[in-house]
Write a structure and sequence with these properties.
Length: 344
Amino acid sequence: MEGGTMKYFFTINALSHCDWSDCPERLVAAAQGKKVLLVAEDDNVDPHAVRVHFGGKVAGYVCRDDAPTVKAQIMSEGRQSMLALVTGCITEPYFKLRAVCECADTSALTIDDRLNQQYDAWVYTGPLLPASQEQKLLEGTVEYLSYVLTGQLAWDAESGIYFTTFLKCHRQDYSDEMFHFRHQFMKYFESDCGLENERLLMERELHEMSKHEHKEGIGRYIASLPGSPEFQQMMQRQGNVDLRSLLEQMARFPENMTALLLKDSTSFCKRLYYIHPRRSVLRRFFSGIAILMFSKQHGLLQNLPDQPTNVGVANPPNALPLAGLDRLANQFNVVLGQNPTTSY
């Protein structure tokens, strides 16, 4: 750390295991003297993990020795990312990059509202789906482009690459943060920035998104969750799940959205478009939905008996089901066996 300048020199590893794995030598050459994006990961088994993005791809991770310092510096800025300058490289025995952190004073791009407070207060204690590769790419893309929107980076060829990645992945995110980011992005293009082609592409995207946030896409995404690698990873980490407690918590999701999804997915998608809860809330909600759908497919749910029945849970709850909880379970139209087990 240099006195007064708040710079920290560090190493970026794992170049051969990420999106540049087929050509790490090109990454090393292309990144020289360029800025990379550092993103603090919240769901990594390593609590200090910092992911690195370059050229619209995941480039690697900050090395284990440097990661705690780098992540602390990122979090001190009040956001999930920061920019770093690549100053050199190492090619033997493995490809690595040398970089230096650059502090930046930025503000969040999200907007709080009263409706979101209602959703933020919802309690969910089940396991959480880890981010997919596309979601990680989108997260890094949005973080990078936010530096362009705040004037800390000029639009250049690198920005164009991130914009292409954004157009490819942004429909994977239905959150409040993404809702507002899209519109701030459009305002940026409407300013005198000379990016007419990009503005037209963004206008087309927003026009298509206005059709209730692409209902078919959300439906396909939800249906794919139980069979996704992320679901497998979540359940392998978690082990057993208390299905009765999970049903209770999902039944409490505001505005009866869980039952609405089970009853009429089209109406659910329309409602989701207008309320767009925050990303952390949606992550919890989709995690719970994935577990319930998996339980349905494997016959782990059934009409709830008079007394609490639990599936592979060490600490069964004492409370009886909520009013209407049996109806919610019935909407899955499945059976609850006597202490059935799963492969997890």
